[in-house]
From TrEMBL:
It comes from Haloferax mediterranei (strain ATCC 33500 / DSM 1411 / JCM 8866 / NBRC 14739 / NCIMB 2177 / R-4) (Halobacterium mediterranei). One of its GO terms (cellular component) is cytoplasm. CDD domains: AdoMet_MTases. This is Class I SAM-dependent methyltransferase family protein. Keywords: Cytoplasm, Methyltransferase, S-adenosyl-L-methionine, Transferase, tRNA processing. It holds the Pfam family TYW2_N_2. InterPro entries: MeTrfase_TRM5/TYW2, SAM-dependent_MTases_sf, TRM5-TYW2-like_MTfase, TRM5/TYW2-like_N, Trm5a/b_N. One of its GO terms (biological process) is tRNA N1-guanine methylation. PANTHER family: TRNA (GUANINE(37)-N1)-METHYLTRANSFERASE, TRNA METHYLTRANSFERASE. SUPFAM superfamilies: S-adenosyl-L-methionine-dependent methyltransferases. GO terms for molecular function: tRNA methyltransferase activity. Residues 79-326 form the SAM-dependent methyltransferase TRM5/TYW2-type domain.
Amino acid sequence: MNVPCVRVPRESGEATRRHLADADLLDHDHEITVSEGNLYIPIVDADAVPSEFEVVDYEPPSRETQTTPTDVLGFEPSYERLGDIVILDEDDPDRAREIADAIVESDLKADTVVNRASKIKGELRIRDWDVLVGESTETVHREYGHEFHLDIDTVYFSPRLATERHRIVQQIRDGEHIFDMFAGVGPFAIPAAAAGSEVVACDLNEAAIEFLRENTTRNDVADRITAIHGDVREVADDYEGWAERLIMNLPHSANEFLETAVRLAGDECVIHLYDIQHEDDPFGPGLNAVRAAAEPEYEVEVLEEKIVRSYAPHEYNVCLDVRLTKP
């Protein structure tokens, strides 16, 4: 029997599946199927699928019954996947252990199960973990056809931003000069380079830069990325006026680096400024900070105001896309 499916190239399958899962659109009664390099992902409501995805009729096999953590527990646990790691966020250690044991008993593929043991801390944005199953906190995460080797114990990485990262990459022009000011292991920089840009990627976390350099080779973009360990405020001395696009993914404190961003900007430059703000005015503080740093040297034009996700009660993680142009 034919059912509606989203058809995507195989290399984009996992990111697309996650996007559809977040929107509660997956049809769990049928199997995801591969055919001639494409992935067919069964969905429950074709009209609710974002227009960026192609919906077709296809006849996937019915799903064989698998044991899920929910089947074992009798309730639906909350968790996040990052490569072969399952991440829990439970305040009760006994409940976390119960969920970890259920994951092991289920058919969910996981080499490691961890529970968040602290908030993100320090200028390197890392956190403590309780390792409940397995030993290694290293994994390889796959996203829109790219692979990222990382260790959650030493670097920051959020799989929840996959769709947002893809939004930025789709705007990139071939040959564009891009400066990723807080690059991490390369989830923005590597797809940007693969899209044909020349990228300078900087981070204060030495472990992140080591993984980034490995990932440039893993993804065959080493010739288009310059990876630099250091404080971007000092690195900027060598790249004043170079950038045509700046990525500032450091919520809570990116505004503190806007003067550096203006130094890096060329005659025309797009800035993607990530921020955490209250729902009453999610974009005003960021825009005011950009204007204070850039005017009158640059004219400031707002291109897009994007709510990326809910961060906390009454707070949003947002992205402000602005263009700076010298008069």
